[in-house]
Design goal:
The protein is mainly α. It has one domain (13-88). Helices cover 49% and strands 0% of the residues. It contains three helices and no strands. It has helices at 16-29, 37-48, 61-85. It is flat and about 55 Å long. The mean pLDDT is 82.
Length: 104
């Protein structure tokens, strides 16, 4: 992942809490990815000729696991805020007046 051509920008203190863990993660998995370029190329060719073409094609176990973990996190957050995100079912949408933020 990092490889010999990897150039890392200077860390910025204000982003240590958010970017720091991502930097550490990429350094931690560098060199642990499978290196099956032929299988990756075959997968890309298969996906690019598929109908419909997938919008995402994570390659490798780490990538698939990371994307699925992220999707579970996103789903949990959406479920948590679903009551706020959707109008009450007893009210018709045209009659629903959500609270307005002063910035809107």
């Amino acid at each position: 992942m990092n490889g010999v051509g990897m150039v890392e920008s200077r860390p910025i203190d204000d982003y240590t809490d958010t970017v720091g863990p991502a930097r550490a993660m990429t350094k931690g998995i560098d060199g642990t990815q499978s290196d099956d370029r032929v299988a990756a190329a075959a997968g890309i060719l298969t996906a690019s000729s598929a109908d419909p073409t997938p919008l995402r094609l994570p390659l490798g176990d780490h990538a698939v696991d990371a994307v699925l973990d992220h999707l579970r996190t996103v789903e949990a957050e959406i479920r948590q805020w679903e009551p706020v995100s959707t109008p009450p079912s007893a009210t018709k949408e045209k009659d629903w007046n959500p609270p307005r933020n002063e910035l809107c």
